[in-house]
Amino acid sequence: MSARSCDNRMHNRRLRRAVALLIAGAFAVGAIELCYQMSKPAVLCEGVSVFADSQLYEPGADLDQLCEDKTAAYDVQTVPPGFEAEVIALGGYQEVRVDKTTHLVGFTSLLASDEVRLQIDEELKNNQWIKANTTEQPCDNYVKHEGVYRWLLIRFVQVGSCTSVVMQYQTTEMGGN
Fold it and tell me: Helix 43-51 vs helix 63-71: angle between axes, to the nearest 10 degrees?
């Protein structure tokens, strides 16, 4: 055997070992990623966890009923008093959510962001709101000189074919004269 063929054999052996190590490493990384992905909760579980608070969820509860209860039409009692009369009527929107402690009202519309913005702008103008300048895009800022509600900051976000709208308001009861 010549030294050259011995070197070629050794070179081939080293090359095969290197390729085998690379393949084993790639397999190990893939297996670790698969285990990691399987350990994370599924998207459905993450969504249900939002709804499954202690007052609503009971073990063995029907998932469809659980989701229907939380996404049903908004309850007029949860909307701040006078909001629909002074700001906008919420009956034509979906998924209305209200947080009175942070003074937020959120909802979705099946219209595109620009269409919802124009629709809300028109309704606010009809209710004596004045659009103020704002540097916060894509937000609109409105003020009003009379009534309980005096200031609004509205954010519009296109989510797929729907638009999510969040309004933050200030009232005279909060000290905003």
Answer: 60
Whole-number Å distance between alpha carbons of 66 and 54? 12
- Between strands 139-143 and 94-99, the pairing is unpaired
Let me know: does 106 contact 83? Beta carbons within 8 Å.
no
Give the CA dihedral 109, 91, 96, 94, nearest 10 degrees: -40
**Upstream peptide bond of 80 is cis (omega within 30 degrees of 0):** no
pLDDT tens-digit profile of 106-157?
Answer: 999 999 989 999 999 999 999 999 998 766 666 889 999 999 999 999 998 8
For residue 174, how many other CB atoms are within 10 A of its CB?
Answer: 13
C-beta separation of 146 from 83 below 8 A: no
CA-nearest of 68, 102, 88 to 165 is 88
Q: Which of 125, 172, 124, 169 is nearest to 147 (CA)?
A: 172
75: its two tokens: 């309850």
Cα–Cα distance, 121 to 167 (Å, whole number): 13
Structural contact between residues 108 and 164, judged by C-beta atoms closer than 8 angstroms: yes
Give the integer Cα–Cα distance in Å for 78 and 128.
Answer: 24
Please tell me the distance from the alpha carbon of residue 24 to that of residue 104, in angstroms, as a whole number.
53
